[in-house]
Every structure is written in C-alpha cells, then in structure tokens.
Amino acid sequence: MVRAEYIRQWEQVCIYLFQSVLLMILVPRIFGETEKILDLSSYLVTKPVVLFSLKYGDQPDYVGLYVPGPEEGEPTTISDFAIGTDGSIYIADNVNKKVKKFSRDGKLLMMTEGDLEGIQAITVDPKGRLFVCFYGDRGISNQLAIYDKDGKRLSEDEKKVRELFKGLTSKTPRVKKETLGYDIPRLSKIWCDSSGNIHFRGGNLFYEIDPKLSQIEFFENKFPYVNRKRYSYELLRSNIRAEHFNCRPDGSIFSKYTIEILRPVEITIYNQDGSVGEKFILPRDGFGEIERLVPSGGGIHCCDQQGHFFMIRQPLKLYGLALMEKNKTEVLVGASYAVCEYDEKGKFIGIRVLLNAFYMSSIHWIEVDPQGNIYYLDFKSDHVDVMMAPAPKVKRK
Hints:
Layout: H1 2-31, E1 49-55, E2 78-83, E3 89-93, E4 98-102, E5 108-111, E6 119-124, E7 130-134, E8 143-147, H2 155-171, H3 173-178, E9 189-192, E10 198-202, E11 205-209, E12 216-220, E13 223-224, E14 230-235, E15 241-247, E16 253-260, E17 265-270, E18 276-282, H4 289-293, E19 296-297, E20 302-303, E21 309-314, E22 317-322, E23 332-342, E24 348-358, E25 366-368, E26 374-379, E27 383-389
Parallel strand pairs: 15-22
Antiparallel strand pairs: 1-27, 2-3, 3-4, 4-5, 6-7, 7-8, 9-10, 10-11, 11-12, 13-14, 14-17, 15-16, 17-18, 19-21, 20-21, 21-23, 22-23, 23-24, 25-26, 26-27
C-alpha cells in the first residue's frame, strides 16, 4: 500500500510538471508576452529625478517636434543639450530654430536671437558663452554661431574662430581635406571642459581652442581626458552573434538584423606629450550578469572629469513606444536603453540611466557634469522629460 501511494504521488508530481511546462509554452503564444519591455529599474545605481518637462509646440517655453509621414524620414526635435556651470539647462530646439536656456525647475531664462537652421550641436563655457554648430543653407554642419549669456550674437568671437580654423587649414593638409572647401570642417559635436577650452569633433579629427580663442590644436581620433591627457577607444570583435529586434508597442517586429554582441572595448590613455600611457580592456572583469541583459552596444558615449566611461547599451529585443497616437505610430522611440558606467580602470559600476530615445537619430542623449551626475532626455508621446541621475555616493577622484 505504501509503495502504491508513493507511485500515485509521483505520478501527480509528473503531471503537475508537465502541465507547468505546457503552460509556459502556450500562455505567451495565446495571450502574448506578459512583460514586453525588459524592466531594468532594479539595477539602477541611483534613483533618477525629473527636473522639468517640456511640451511639444511653438510657444517660447515649449520645444518643437516635427513628425513626418511613415516613409518621409526621422522626426525633428531637440538635437542637443548642454549643462551650464550654474546647473542651468540649454536646449537646442531644432524645429523652432532657437537655443533656449532653462532653470533647473523649468523656467525659461533666455532664447538666442534670430533663427538658426539645422542646429547640430551646442556647448556653453564657464563665462556663459554659447557655441552652436549648425547647417544653415550649406547642407553640412560647418557653420558656427557664438552668443553671450543673454543670447546676443558675438560676431567678433565667431571671426576669431574662423581665422583659427583657416590658419590651421592652410598649413595642415589633413585638416584641409576635412574642411570640404570651407574655413571650418564639418562638425558633429562641441563640448567645453572645466578649464574653458572648447572641443570640436569633425569626422575623425578633434580640435581644441583655448578660452581666449587665440590658439587651436588638432588631434586624430583622440578624445579629451582628465589632467590634460587624451584617450581613444577601439571596439573589438566578438565571436558571439545574435538577432536584434526592434518591435512596435503591440509586439510586432519593426526591424531585425544580426549583430555581434558583448563586444569589449580597448581603451588607450595618452600622456600630455602624446605617448601611450596605458591600455586596458573594458569591461575589465568581462561581461557580468547585468551587462548580459543589455548585450548590444558599441563604443564609448563619453568620459567624465573623473575618468569614468559611459556606454549606451540595449537588450536584443527593444520595444518601442508610440510617439504620436494619431496615424503616426510608425514614429517610435525605443525603450530600455541603458547607460552603463565604468571606472577609470574599466571596472563595471552599474546601470546609471534608463531612457526612451529615437531608434535612429543624431540626438546627443546624455551629458555628465564634473560631479558625475548624468543629465538626459526622456521622450514621451506628448512631452519630453529633462532628467538627472545623481552620482553614486562613493569616493570619486
């Protein structure tokens, strides 16, 4: 009797296991996936805060958004943003053709005078001077506008910069090739360091101009690093390939392609004299469990003034959020982009930011201040949130 009862109980266990496995297979197929978007919020190192929100529109304290038809290209909205030394937020409103300055609680403080067509990148120096790279009617981003703290155009400062580039072009064939026949090379990014030096990126060349706008240097494939050093990175190959899916909100596939995943990055730090100081692989200890949840990503997005590196990574299945609800559902923003932080030796610190951003866009997604706080834009259907993720409370250089 005991043996028969044991056999009966074992049969019940087997039936239960079989039913459980069957449910695991059938339920997602019948009802769809219960968790469409990968929830990584429990892995955030610090809790982000919403500084303020901007509605879409053409009013002064709004930000423009142009949504084309499904086959007419990408939407146009904020193209870049920058953080002032006083903590104010500068927004490049590419639709309304202005750069706008906001306080940390969202109060409009300044707008640039005149209109700029095709704003590409902006930065602000410690004096409050605003540098804006834009397309205009040339079709390439090699025009530069400079404004004072009140939004007034500084034509004399612009002339100084043009003369610096013109002098560099005339004596440097490598730079001349990048200018495409104009005084200033095609520029894709501008940023300012804590000393007030202005850095420009044009193709594979990086330019540095001193705060007085009197001297210029150029470097090939070398970003500015701490203590007047520079760094470069190389995305290494991986022997692991996987399918990457972009999905609509309902789970249908928007696009898919096969890519290499879990690709390490080789970092090279250069001394002030240009010699190689050190090299290391990022991540230093190999990809851990958290990073494997967001295996797709490449290169370094930026480096802060403590020498920490930041990489934008994403899961293999990236679900979209509809930007516009009425007949514009093909215009999507992808959810679950993760910004991973690594220390100056390449050790993984954790996920600092999760954001929603356009699948394909020239928008510069994050900025990092000297204290290691990350600022970013989080796009929603009817507004965009200006966010800040505070730096972890650990000892930093």
